[in-house]
Amino acid sequence: MPTCAPWAFKPWARRGLCVTYILGCDGRWLYIRNAFPELRSECVESGPEYPAGRELWAAHDAGKLNADQGDIFLQPRPTEELYDVQDDPDQLDNLAATDDGQAANAATLAKLRGLLDEWTAETGDTVPTNPTPSRPVTGRGQGMEPEFRHRELPGEARGASKINARGPVRSAGH
Question: What is the C-alpha radius of gyration for the chain, rounded to an integer number of angstroms?
């Protein structure tokens, strides 16, 4: 059973910083392009302010995580990730991580790269050149200093502060 919606495009912001662009799939493939691969793949809940985050960090510090559990700490992250969500619903085997995987999936990677590029162009989305730095937060607007200001937001360079276009829409066969 697929774990992602057909042709769903989503910029993904973490801790106020646009880290990853995700291209949902055609029922089989999930493609991820990491805009800032030098950053870890954290979300707010993985921080020490939350019980699960404290447990995760303690296990990491004690060397008790396996490779799959420790993926959140991977730094740098791969620039691209490709998962076959039918054969790998937990998204543990990055098919874009090896030369063999890239060669075996070259057509799929080319198609999904192209669709993400098309979506980015049509919607006016951009990756910030001066992004807001990552910072620990405890919730929406909580725990931030009063002087906190966002820097460049995703899409701001092209005036994409709202949805400018639907982006490429494909039928299930494309």
Answer: 17
The b/e string for 99-117 (b: 16+ C-beta within 10 A; e otherwise) is eeeeeebeebbebbeebbe
The pLDDT of residue 173 is above 60: no
H-helix or E-strand containing 107? Answer: helix 106-123
Q: How far is CA 44 from the centre of its chain?
A: 14
Domains along the sequence of the chain with CATH? 1-39+75-174 (3.30.1120.10), 43-73 (no CATH)
pLDDT tens-digit series, residues 53-76: 889 889 999 999 999 988 888 888
Alpha carbon 131 to its chain centroid, in Å, reads 15
Burial class (CB in 10 A: 0-12, 13-18, 19+), 119: buried
CA 123 to chain centre: 18
Report the C-alpha gap between 63 and 149 in whole angstroms. 36
Contact between 21 and 75 under an 8 Å Cβ cutoff? The reply is no
Q: pLDDT at position 60, please?
A: 92
pLDDT in tens, 100-130: 999 999 999 998 888 888 878 887 878 778 7
